[in-house]
């Protein structure tokens, strides 16, 4: 299902660990199942989701927040998706499209619930909270968005000091909050709301 989220104001700025303040942003949600276009009621908060990243120790993206499966660095707090599907000669001949697109895996991936096992088993991994807007391809467990903003990174209490320090440094550089990994789900309510439960129920 494709939805379009258009905030009337940009997502609110960052805050310290001890104080979180967010300006409300009105967004419009347009559901487009099959051939029908059904307009849902306006939302009053950004769409919130959860992501995993890695912080690599070496290479051109070292010390950057990177996508977990492709070394694409997130050097800015707000990122916009591009389709990079061109792996074969046939794909290079296809017309370009705005990411994300139905039938393609492009877009900024975010999950509806935290996947907090990832940073427990991967020594370079970190989880966090994002808000997303623009064109969004939404599924029962995850969504692929046109734009995303990092809101918070999570610290795991069993990490090595090196990994914890790396995450703290990345959070400070991007100007985002730090939360405990065990509190990732509840903390997300301070940044926005998940997609409407009725929408996700219909997909499931």
| Number of domain units | 1
Portion in strands: 25-35%
Helix segment tally: 5
Q: Classify the oligomer.
A: single chain
Structural class: alpha+beta
The largest β sheet comes out as: 10 strands, mixed
Helix content: 10-25%
Helix and strand run: EEEEEEHEHEEHEHH
Q: Please give the radius of gyration in angstroms.
A: 17 Å
Number of strands: 10
Description:
- Strands 1, 2, 3, 4, 5, 6, 7, 8, 9 and 10 form a ten-stranded mixed β-sheet that branches.
- The chain contains five helices and ten strands, in the order ββββββαβαββαβαα.
- The chain has 204 residues and is an alpha+beta fold.
- Helix 3 (161-174) links the parallel strand 9 and strand 10 (177-180).
- The protein is 17% helix and 29% strand.
- The radius of gyration is 17 Å and the shape is globular.
- It has one domain (2-203).
- The longest helix is centred in the C-terminal third of the chain and has 14 residues, at 161-174.
